[in-house]
């Protein structure tokens, strides 16, 4: 017997779906939770699990929320959807618009979108506008557009996005068989941290109602040092980081993110570009998981917190959310790698010598 696929089918009872909501899916959700024992030792926790969201159909966590936002937009009669994006949201929107047979418009900041993400928006047939300005300016522009036209806005200011994304929290609890002590994730526009907290608190409320203990994880939101408004406490006018996915200075879900941090007893941390790239390499070489730079930020953050306070995570089960696949941004991944060696002649002696 085959289980129904996708976020809408699997989690319908916890989502705002009606009989009229189309059961759109590209097979999103149900991503693996991978154990990373070597990194757990480095962080000093008992267990470290990687929620590999790069295994979603378009290679990032955005698909969970996009499928719900898109289905609700179609239910409401939309014929065209729009988003501003640092890349992944546009890739996801383009794919789901293609699957649903509606038009897609994406507005991206000039010069800062990773190659794989652009390729996705192009092949899925989105109309792409490149804006002179950063993500924050692009989001402001599409919000105005959505107010003045019937085009459906599918950024995470659309509450259906957070509804879909909260299902990742349910999956983490289901896969572990318990609520982890802590969960670390990258923070950009702050939709995902808000969605996880919504998922964890909804689960806790259901447990409480069933007469069981109310348990939630401590949330660690990690930002890039050059784009860290939650650490300075105010928007950043000119965000800069190699982790272009989270190059955001004025997060839309500011209040919800602060609430997630406060209510969970968590904190915001920042990691420099060097720390992020180092964490990305360690994930690839010590855990076998290739994620994009932004997705390595939570590991960089946990390593930093562990170094600042040795023993901080002793005995704990931690989850790091790896939000996007490494193949999204191949150029950053190989930028500092040595060039490939010269080709050798195809004979055994040469091969033996080259591999010695
Ligand atoms: N990780 C990746 C790979 C992302 O693409 C994003 C956001 C985040 C983390 C941060 O999530 O915004 O909910 O705090 N990318 C958006 C985009 C902004 O346009 O693709 P957030």
Description:
With 356 residues, the protein is α/β, with parallel strands linked by helices. The chain folds into two domains: 7-56 and 161-335, Rossmann fold; 62-158, Rossmann fold, CATH 3.40.50.1100. It is 44% helix and 14% strand. It has a six-stranded mixed β-sheet with strand order 1-2-10-7-8-9, sandwiched between helices. A four-stranded parallel β-sheet has the order 5-4-3-6, sandwiched between helices. Helix 3 (62-75) crosses helix 4 and helix 4 packs parallel to helix 5 (115-123). The model has no long low-confidence stretch (mean pLDDT 97). The structure holds ligand F0G. The site of ligand F0G has 23 residues, from helix 4, helix 9 and helix 13. Residues 60, 62, 85-89, 156, 186-193, 245-246, 292, 294-295, 323-324 line the site of ligand F0G.
Question: What tags apply to this protein structure?
Answer:
356 residues; alpha/beta; Rossmann fold; six-stranded mixed β-sheet; four-stranded parallel β-sheet; 15 helices; globular; binds ligand F0G
